[in-house]
Amino acid sequence: MLPTALLVTAALTAISVWSTxxxxxxxxxxxxxxxxxxxxVTGGQVSFSGRDASLSGFPPDKAAQAMDAIQxxxxxxxxxxxxxxxxxxxxxxxxxxxxxxxxxxxxxxxxxSPTPARPTDKAGFQAEIDRLLAATPITxxxxxxxxxxxxxxxxxxxxKLLTGAPENLRFRITGQVATGSDKKLAxxxxxxxxxxxxxxxxxxxxxxxxxxxNSDGTGGEGRRVDITVEQR
Length: 232
Prior knowledge:
CATH 3.30.1330.60
C-alpha cells in the first residue's frame, strides 16, 4: 500500500490542478464575454474545457465573427463551434452584417475608330477632299470673302490633309458665287481660301486659284469653293 504521505500529496496536487484549471476557465470565460460584447456579437454561448473553447447557438451571420473574437484571446488554444454556421452570401463586415456587393466595374469604352489611311495618289486625295467638303463645305458670308465659322473649320481640315502632299500633285481652288454675282468675287473667294490653306501648312507651290460663275447658287450654296486635284 502507498504511504499515507503520498496519498495526501497526490490529493493536494489534484486539488491544485483542478483549482488552477477552474481559475483559467473562469478567466477565459470572463474575457470571452467581454470580447464578444466589444464586437457586438450576442445570441450564443461560450464554454471552456481548460483552454479549449466551445461555441454554440450563434446566428450564422455572427458565427465567424464570434470565432475570430475568441481566437484572438491570449491563452485560448482551440475554438470549436456547433450549429448552423453557414454565413450569408457576401463578405462579413466587422459589425457582422453582410457588406454591400462590390461595385460593378464600368465597361471599358470601345477603342477609337482607326484613322483613315492618308491618301498617296491623285484619286485618293480627290476622294478625301470631296468627303471633307461634303461634311463641312468651305462657305462665305453673303457678298464677301470672309469665311463663315463652318467655312473655317472645313478649310482647316483641308489644310491638314494637304500638308506634306506629294510634290507631283496640284490643288486647284475654284470660287463659286450666287446668282447675280460677278467672277471677280468668285476669284477673290478662291484666293482667300488659298491664303488660308497656306497659312495653315498647305504647300504654297501646289495650291492655286481660279474662278467660275455659278448661275444656280440659290439659298447660299453658291457661296463656296471647290477643290480639284491635278497631276503635274
